[in-house]
């Protein structure tokens, strides 16, 4: 019985992890932008200005204007 419970919990964790990963890929495909457009490279829990805009505007980049880089 213990083996079945362990297998069930492992399978459940795998399904949840896979579904979370897919949702991010969907955003990238929808907007035809790389993940690093909205997230700093290597810091995918953080957001760039574009990522914050996307989150605050109902998951849409419509109307987003990239700010000029500071020199």
Short structural summary:
This protein is an all-alpha fold. It has helices at residues 2-31, 49-56.
Number of strands: 0
Shape: elongated
Total count of domains: 1
What is the beta-strand fraction? under 5%
The string of secondary-structure elements, in order, is: HH
Q: How much is the average pLDDT?
A: 82
Total helices: the number is 2
Provide the gyration radius in Å.
17 Å
Report the end-to-end length measured between terminal Cα atoms. 64 Å
- The share of residues in helices is 40-55%
How can the largest sheet be summarized? none
Structural class, by secondary structure, is: mainly alpha
Which segments are poorly predicted (pLDDT under 50) over 5 or more consecutive residues? none
Question: Describe it for me?
Answer:
With 71 residues, the protein is mainly α. It has one domain (2-56). 54% of the residues lie in helices and 0% in strands. The protein contains 2 helices and no strands. It has helices spanning 2-31, 49-56. It is elongated, with a radius of gyration of 17 Å. 3% of the residues are buried. The model has no long low-confidence stretch (mean pLDDT 82).
Which key terms come to mind for this protein?
71 residues, mainly alpha, 2 helices, elongated
């Amino acid at each position: 019985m213990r083996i079945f419970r362990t297998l069930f919990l492992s399978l459940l964790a795998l399904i949840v992890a896979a579904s979370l990963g897919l949702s991010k890929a969907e955003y990238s495909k929808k907007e035809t932008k790389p993940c690093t457009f909205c997230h700093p490279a290597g810091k995918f829990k953080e957001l760039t200005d574009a990522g914050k805009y996307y989150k605050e505007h109902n998951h849409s980049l419509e109307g987003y204007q990239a700010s000029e880089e500071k020199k």
